[in-house]
Specification:
There is one protein chain. By secondary structure, this protein is of the alpha/beta class. The chain has one domain: STAS domain (Transcription Regulator spoIIAA). 38% of the residues lie in helices and 26% in strands. The protein is built from four helices and seven strands, in the order βββαββαβαβα. The strands form two sheets. It has a five-stranded mixed beta sheet, sandwiched between helices. The protein has a two-stranded parallel ribbon with strand order 3-5. α1 (25-36) runs parallel beside α2 and α2 (58-69) packs parallel to α3 (85-97). It starts with a strand and ends with a helix. The model has no long low-confidence stretch (mean pLDDT 87).
Length: 117
């Protein structure tokens, strides 16, 4: 998995790229948590799954747990690229996290408009 986290000033852009599996998802989520859990204001997140392939049933559980654990540090989350099997994963994460400040989007433009309002 080649993934990156970019601080865009007003928000953090998390790009999940390539194969997400039970072996590699935890390292990336831990790195992202380090950036999110900073002193000061809660962050806005743009999570991009457009170019990712989810392999392994434990990935959705790892992401759902990560979302719950980071709730106090996140103001809003916009999520891109949730189609097909990833849509089912996204719905699972939304339901199990209990968060009301996460939305799924088809376009980056719409996601950023909502995220930055």
């Amino acid at each position: 998995m080649v993934s990156r986290i970019t601080d865009k000033g007003d928000y953090l852009h998390l790009v999940f790229d390539g194969e997400l599996n039970n072996d590699n998802i935890h390292d990336f989520l831990n790195e992202a948590a380090t950036m999110i859990r900073r002193p000061g204001n809660r962050v806005r997140l743009l999570s991009d799954f457009e170019t990712s392939i989810v392999v392994g049933g434990k990935v959705k559980n790892a992401v759902a747990e990560w979302v719950k654990e980071n709730t106090p540090f996140v103001k809003k989350s916009a999520v891109l690229g949730i189609k097909g099997f990833k849509y089912a994963m996204g719905q699972f994460v939304l339901r199990t996290s209990g968060r009301k400040n996460i939305r799924l989007f088809d376009s980056e433009k719409a996601a950023l408009e909502w995220l930055l309002e």
